[in-house]
Amino acid sequence: MLITIFTLSLFALGGLAGAPVNSTGCLCTYGKPCWPTADQFAELESQVSQPLIYPVPSASACYPANDPSGNCTQVVQGWTNGNWRSSLPGAMEEPNFESFIFKNGTISACYLNTSLGVPCEQGSVPVIGVDARTPQDIQAAGYRGVIRHDYLGRSAGRGSFVVWTHKMKNITYDANFTPQGAPTNETYQALIVESGVQWHEAYDAANQNGRMMVGGVCPDGSIGAAGGWLQGGGHSSLSPTYGLGVDNAVQITVVTSTGDHLTVNNYRYSDLFWALRGGGGSTYGIITSVTYRTYQQLPVVMYFVQANVTNGTVMKELIGGMLRLLPNLTDDGWVGYGQLTNTSVTFMGVNPGISTVTGNASMQPLTDYLLSLESKGVSSAAVITPFDTWYAWFTWVKQSASTTGEDGANMMITSRLLSRDTLVNQYADVAEILYDCQATFNMVGGGKVSQVNPDSAGLNPTWRNTIVETVCSVFWAEGATAAEIAGQIDQLKVWIEDMYSLTPQAGAYFNEASLFEIDWQYTFFGSHYSKLKEIKDKYDPYRLFVVAEGVGSDEWNEELTCRW
Fold it and tell me: What is the largest distance, in Å, between two alpha-carbon atoms of the chain?
């Protein structure tokens, strides 16, 4: 996890603690008179367990182009790999968030393509930071935090200070875990993960104990298990069966802006525990560990289908028909991931604890629907595959994607959380938009997700009505001008407006959206915003934590450097 900090007026939350804003009411960034001196940085270094770090852009090892300063081959090989990117304190999931666009259109960046002839510059990558290995290191490094797992660039900060928790990797399995303050008969078979643990590491540890758990899924398993994923809500390939991440965290430890290291759960600091589960990352404090309940490993079946289409009108019909069928699939326990192009759709469904026969029967309506379109030029092929355990399926996913990755592209996205009612009654209108943007969709709601009390966590209540998260994306090549990037963003805004007009009462996933969502307070937090703001004010009295479109950020200017 990466925590960027703009304020360094006084470092420590303990003996050196002080107000996070200077006399102008603004945060301090590199190059300003208020920026700490070399002696002050040396003092901080004496208080933490590791030497200070000096992050650089992810492509910096390839420069100078005629005499690379590092292993450029390794950079090229790891560019799209999330695990490689997370191992670098200066790397972001999308390299465009490492760059910085000035108001005059000039771009400060460090491109992988050295043939562009552009010098490698720092861009929005933090300039110095702490390599945190313990909660005490975090307490020593007063900061303004942001989350790592998101698609909005919240991990970047031009001229900022970073607290890097990637190497906080302790994992503990406790078969009889009782939350602090809970009745002695309330126990869980739980896994405790520190803030640097990634989901592939957590899954390995759970599997070694014959367990599985609700967690993030990406091809390389690089998503952090105890940071932004949870604080944004945390959807999973097991969500229709066991709920979201926020429904499975039973205890959290967190450092607040007052320097306290708190243990929070339903019995201790229950309001903060409520807010940390879905109320947005790096807004209330910095999480140092999360305790999750685990489940007995189960066999799973995987359904995979690809359909090819030659006609745009038919493709839209196909998309709409699929959308209309998805609620029934989540009722049967399926999770699913789909990818659309102008001429094809691929869909992978996963369901734990059922047989191949049951899986085939459950998916038959979708199979039959695709076959019914053969007369309109649709060709499709479906296969269902059993796996002995959920972990075996996850291992297959990792191996299948071992030579590729989903990071390293210059992109921005927007998401929308669609309800059963929308899918059943507005599927044709939704299909038009998804066809236009060649969307991906995640069928990660319904089932257990919809059965949980909407007010049980700080999460946007709209999640409890959600069946599918849709995602539209824009991309651009390295070296694109500010005007070209703005053109892509304008297209993204069109899709945002179209989806908002169609579903004004819906929301977006905090971790997977854009900075241009309409009415972001409601879109990300729904009716919980005011309560979340009260909790933030209580536990962050120094206003150290502010992230783009996070709770309380409406009190700051657009650059999040000065309060109104």
Answer: 76
Reference 99, options 79, 78, 121, 119; nearest CA is 121
Residue 336 tokens, joined: 């699913």
Q: Are 147 and 282 in contact (CB under 8 A)?
A: yes
What's the token pair of residue 439?
């969307």
563 neighbors 543 (Cβ within 8 angstroms)? yes
What predicted TM-score, i.e. pTM, was given to this entire model? 0.94
Element (H, E) at 162: strand 161-164
The Cα 162–Cα 146 span in angstroms is: 9
The CB density around residue 425, as the number of other CB atoms within 10 Å, is 12
Q: What's the CA gap between 323 and 434, in Å, rounded? A: 11
Average pLDDT of the residues in 88-116? 96
Pairing mode, strands 128-131 and 161-164: parallel
pLDDT tens by residue, 130-152: 999 999 999 988 643 333 444 56
CA distances from 154 to 217, 242, 330, 476 (A): 20, 29, 32, 19
Asked whether the beta carbons of 349 and 303 are under 8 A apart, the reply is: yes
pLDDT tens-digit map of 185-230: 999 999 999 999 999 999 999 999 999 999 998 888 899 999 999 9
Question: 63 CB contacts (<8 Å, ≥6 apart)?
Answer: 69, 110, 114, 119, 120
Helix-, strand-, coil-residue percentages of the chain, each rounded to 5: 35, 20, 45
